[in-house]
């Protein structure tokens, strides 16, 4: 039985914060792999209008290349409509019956868990892993394993804003992702 972490998100663009979280959880919980799962239409936010799913997928593949324990799953990109985690996890669990799954969420999402679509069913399908951050409450009635990850105050929205203004994003993103963004004139570059 493999132990697989799933890190979902828009990855618009994927950055070193995503990679840091994935690597820390992988090692802290002795997982076999981390699957990066780009969302189609996350119910709680909107993706950039100008960036295609294919471009987000390519940036994510570039970001994780070279790490044999990191994979990309396109299950949510292949589906239409809003991406509800419970529906995705039903499909994954049906396909990979012998594997154990750990769904990685940020500290901000721990507080939001009671509002997740069909949360009571979801906790039977997956083990939640919360990335600890001191500024957020970790109080929840749901089973969450906590992993302490070094703070890295970077977000895709900050990166998009910097790119739009022509400012540097060096050391916030893998160089391969920066080159892809520049070559394809993404985010206003």
The global form is globular
Strand order of the largest sheet: 3-2-1-4-5-6
Alpha plus pi helix count: 7
Protein structure class: alpha/beta
The level of helicity is: 25-40%
| Distance between the first and last residues' Cα | 45 Å
The tally of beta strands, per DSSP, is 6
CATH architecture field: 3-Layer(aba) Sandwich
Mean pLDDT: 90
Q: Unreliable stretches, pLDDT < 50, 5 or more residues?
A: none
What number of structural domains do the residues give? 1
Run of helices and strands? EHEHEHEHHEEHH
Percent strand equals: 15-25%
CATH class: Alpha Beta
What Rg is obtained from the alpha carbons, in whole angstroms? Answer: 16 Å
Main sheet: strands, sense, barrel = 6 strands, parallel
CATH topology call? Rossmann fold
Give an account of the 3D structure:
The protein is α/β, with parallel strands linked by helices. The protein has seven helices and six strands. It is globular, with a radius of gyration of 16 Å.
In short:
This protein is of the alpha/beta class and 189 residues long. It is 35% helix and 18% strand. The chain has one domain: HUPs (Rossmann fold).
């Amino acid at each position: 039985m493999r132990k697989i972490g799933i890190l979902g998100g828009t990855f618009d663009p994927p950055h070193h914060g995503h990679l840091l979280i994935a690597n820390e959880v992988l090692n802290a919980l002795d997982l076999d792999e981390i699957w990066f799962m780009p969302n189609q239409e996350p119910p709680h936010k909107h993706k950039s209008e100008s960036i295609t799913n294919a471009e987000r997928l390519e940036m994510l593949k570039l970001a994780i290349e070279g790490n044999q324990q990191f994979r990309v799953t396109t299950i949510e990109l292949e589906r239409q409509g809003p991406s509800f985690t419970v529906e995705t996890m039903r499909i994954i669990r049906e396909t990979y019956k012998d594997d154990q799954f750990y769904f990685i969420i940020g500290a901000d999402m721990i507080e939001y868990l009671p509002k997740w679509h069909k949360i009571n069913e979801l906790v039977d399908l997956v083990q939640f892993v919360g990335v600890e951050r001191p500024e957020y409450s970790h109080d929840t009635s749901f089973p969450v394993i906590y992993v302490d990850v070094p703070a890295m105050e970077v977000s895709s929205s900050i990166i998009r804003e910097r790119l739009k203004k022509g400012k540097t994003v060096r050391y916030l993103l893998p160089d391969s992702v920066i080159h892809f963004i520049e070559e394809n004139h993404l985010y206003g570059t």
